[in-house]
Amino acid sequence: MFRTHTSTLLGSPAVESDCFLWGCIEHSLILPWFYVTLVGDETQTTTMLQVMDPKIFIELLEQHQKSLQIKEVQLVTPPHINGGSLWQMEKLLEFSYCHDLKLGSFELYEVEGGCFYTNLERDKTCDIAGAEKTIVYRRSMLQH
After folding, report:
1. Which residues, other chains included, contact 45 with Cβ-Cβ below 8 Å and sequence gap of 6+?
2. pTM of the predicted model, to two decimals?
């Protein structure tokens, strides 16, 4: 989902850690991704994650029930998804998997301000109203 280059490695990891610090990453896929702010229940430590895969995002939601508190989720979209000329980061209100006999399966994102985005081609988005929708994330599900 992203690439790193050894020249951008910042220092070397501690012996007991499997974490590396990178000065930059290269996005190799032009797809939406999630910017998730988490707080550990016991430590109250804030962590921000770039989550490139919806399946990993769902795993985080499941962890939310156990040991992590999700404080905020933002959706980062490329221009071909958001209809603009630049990447945008917006507060995510809802994320769903949808299915329609004609359109097939697709992802649907609702962001603050009332905009909806999908991973469908832009000319097909007017046909999504009748699709079967399974909500995976809704901002109101988070306890603040």
Report:
1. 39
2. 0.82
